[in-house]
Amino acid sequence: MESFLDQSAGYLINMTALLLKREMTGALSRNKINVTPEQWAILNRLSENSGLSQKEVAKRTFKDNANITRILDKLEKKGMVKRQMDANDRRVWKIHITKEGKRVRDQIEPLAKEILQKATHGIDPKDVQTFNAAAKKMLQNLGQ
């Protein structure tokens, strides 16, 4: 008999996220791509909208300010992002993805799609859509 925890959406989503992250870390390592899943998430958001403030990047990737600063420092050292002071507010830094950042992001996308295909193998596409819609609604309900 499954326990309450085993049937909990929070537990199941968390465990799935951990396993997806593990798969992504392994794929990045096997392909000798020198970024972490967290760094890739930031590159992904910046490829959608380069020039976000550091605060906006943190919000869109669910990272706190200390973590986002550390991750951006590493990406900047790798030449994948650059910081630029906001012309209207010198306290704000805009984060831009570089050509190298775009190249690496584009190199990783097929790996991520492959991992998602593995994770959803044998699941009806309609069920995947239903899950995605439910997860998005949970994020909204929790204030994201």
TrEMBL record:
Record domain HTH marR-type: where: 6-140
UniProt xrefs under PROSITE patterns: HTH_MARR_2
PANTHER family: TRANSCRIPTIONAL REGULATOR, MARR, TRANSCRIPTIONAL REPRESSOR OF EMRAB OPERON
GO molecular function list: DNA binding; DNA-binding transcription factor activity
Source organism superkingdom: Bacteria
Protein name: DNA-binding transcriptional regulator, MarR family
Sorted UniProt keywords: DNA-binding, Transcription, Transcription regulation
Organism of this sequence: Flagellimonas flava
